[in-house]
Amino acid sequence: MAYFGFELAETMEEFVRRFNNFTIQDEKGKSYVLLVQRAIHQALPSLKKRMHPLHNTITDTDDYKQFLAKLQGKPITDKGGAESGIEAKED
């Protein structure tokens, strides 16, 4: 699938006439028929990738800080992370 943006309707029509039902062949000899469809009033997909709102925020969480402290052998101060919630339910 590919998207093309044309500034002029005439250019788009010429592209459709030229490539709709056009047959191409790959290096193995298999043939493919191109199908061109118009979407005149459609916007092209955005090339910008939106970042997820939580992108690069793991370092700010208490659970991650506790995990790093545990890896480095530092004493862990409980700030109410996920583990403390599990322990509270077990009591």
Question: Care to describe what's here?
Answer:
The chain is mainly alpha-helical. It folds into 2 domains: 1-39, no CATH class; 58-90, no CATH class. Helix content is 34%, strand content 7%. It is built from 3 helices and 2 strands. A hairpin with a 5-residue loop joins strand 1 (23-25) and strand 2. The longest helix has 11 residues, at 9-19.
Sum up the structure in keywords.
two-stranded antiparallel ribbon; 91 residues; mainly alpha; 34% helix; 2 domains; 3 helices
Total of domains:
2
- Structural class, judged by helices and strands? mainly alpha
Order of helices and strands: HEEHH
Into which percent range does the helicity of residues fall?
A: 25-40%
Shape: elongated
Ends distance: 57 Å
Main sheet characteristics:
2 strands, antiparallel
Please specify the SSE layout and strand pairing.
Elements: H1 9-19, E1 23-25, E2 31-33, H2 62-72, H3 82-90
Antiparallel strand pairs: 1-2
How would you sum up this structure in a few lines?
The chain is mainly alpha-helical. Helices cover 34% and strands 7% of the residues. It has a two-stranded antiparallel ribbon.
